[in-house]
Every structure is written in C-alpha cells, then in structure tokens.
C-alpha cells in the first residue's frame, strides 16, 4: 500500500501496490501493521457499505462527536464518487479547509478520513457502491453533519445533487463548536 499525504493533515490517499500476472492482480487493501507503521490507527469496529442507485446522489457531510469520533477508510468498489473531506479540528492548521478526490471502481484509490473531519460524496455513475471501514461503532446521538452547500466552506461540486436525504439537506449551518449544533428534526425522530 502506498500512503500519500493530502493538503489536510492526517487525510491520506492510499493506493494499491498490485502484484500482476496473466490472471490479473493481487493487492492488499487493508493491513493494520502498515497503518500502524505510518502512525495511523489500525482499529476497525465495523464495515459499512453504501449502495447508490442513481448518479448524482449525495451522502453527507457526516461526522461523530467525541468520544465516538471515528476514522473512516473508504473505497469505491463500483462506479465513481467525488469525495470531499472537511477538516473540523479547531487546533489544526487546515481547520475549515477541504479537499476533494475521485474514487472509482477502476482506480482502486482509497481515502483515509481521520477523526475530527467530516466526509461526503457525490456519485458520478448509477449503481455506485462505497465500502468503508470505521474505527468506532456508530452512536446515533453523537452524529452531526454539515449541509453539502454550507457557504462557510465554499465547496465547488462538479454537478448539483439530484438525490439527497431530508436529513442531509437539513443539517444546520456550521458551528465552530459542533456539540452545540442541533440534531435536525429528521434525524432526531428516526
């Protein structure tokens, strides 16, 4: 596995190192030892799969409050996504900055989103699937989010989302203290 730094500390783009022959290739897609050798958490609590029927479906921005913050390690296994990460760590030199990357079933690129960052993706093809490993168990009461078009961040999406959940479209404006952000009504009642 090759770990590449991004413009946000701790956010890593991870590429496979395939061993190829006439059959195709073999590559390691996850290795706790390699993560720990790079100073990254090797903890995995669960694996999530997000299947999206329609192109231009948006999911996010999501993050968890302490002590339930989670590292996420994402890979698009089918289709393509435009993935965006926002740094929400007030002590970070890149606080409130964002990056975007293309994750596709064909490029095999993976993205590590560390604790304290929010993540969202927009599907660029029909029938897109994203698999991700997370370091903590989901805690519904600790979930927070940021609206995909919150002006605090000036994110330029490649296209306007066509499919988005009520929860994701109704997150409140960003607050520098996420503990104070209310849970949207759609989330509080689900």
Automatic annotation (TrEMBL):
Domain of life according to the entry: Bacteria
Presence of keyword Isomerase: yes
One GO MF term attached to the UniProt entry: dTDP-4-dehydrorhamnose 3,5-epimerase activity
CDD domains linked to this entry: cupin_RmlC
Single GO BP term: polysaccharide biosynthetic process
Residues annotated as the enzyme's active site: 62 (proton acceptor), 132 (proton donor)
Pathway involvement of the protein, from the record: Carbohydrate biosynthesis; dTDP-L-rhamnose biosynthesis
Catalytic activity reported: dTDP-4-dehydro-6-deoxy-alpha-D-glucose = dTDP-4-dehydro-beta-L-rhamnose
Keyword tags: Isomerase
Record-annotated site: Participates in a stacking interaction with the thymidine ring of dTDP-4-oxo-6-deoxyglucose: 138
Pfam entry (one): dTDP_sugar_isom
GO cellular component, one term: cytosol
EC number: 5.1.3.13
Keyword hit for Isomerase: yes
NCBIfam families in the cross-refs: rmlC
Subunit structure: Homodimer.
Family per similarity comment: Belongs to the dTDP-4-dehydrorhamnose 3,5-epimerase family.
Task of the protein: Catalyzes the epimerization of the C3' and C5'positions of dTDP-6-deoxy-D-xylo-4-hexulose, forming dTDP-6-deoxy-L-lyxo-4-hexulose.
Record's protein name: dTDP-4-dehydrorhamnose 3,5-epimerase
UniProt source species: Chelatococcus reniformis
């Amino acid at each position: 596995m090759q770990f590449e730094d991004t413009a946000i500390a701790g956010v890593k783009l991870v590429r496979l190192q395939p061993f190829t022959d006439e059959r195709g290739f073999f590559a390691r897609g996850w290795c706790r030892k390699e993560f720990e050798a790079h100073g990254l958490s090797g903890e995995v609590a669960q694996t999530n799969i997000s299947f999206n029927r329609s192109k231009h479906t948006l999911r996010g921005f999501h993050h968890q409050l302490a002590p339930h913050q989670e590292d996420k390690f994402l890979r698009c296994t089918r289709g393509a996504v435009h993935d965006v990460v926002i740094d929400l760590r007030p002590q970070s030199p890149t606080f409130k900055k964002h990056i975007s990357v293309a994750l596709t079933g064909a490029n095999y690129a993976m993205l590590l989103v560390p604790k304290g960052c929010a993540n969202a993706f927009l599907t660029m093809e029909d029938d897109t699937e994203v698999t991700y490993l997370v370091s903590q168990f989901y805690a519904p009461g600790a979930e927070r989010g940021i609206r995909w078009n919150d002006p605090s961040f000036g994110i330029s999406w490649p296209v306007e989302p066509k499919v988005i959940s009520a929860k994701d479209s109704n997150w409140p404006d960003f607050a520098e203290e996420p503990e104070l952000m209310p849970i949207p009504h759609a989330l509080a009642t689900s």
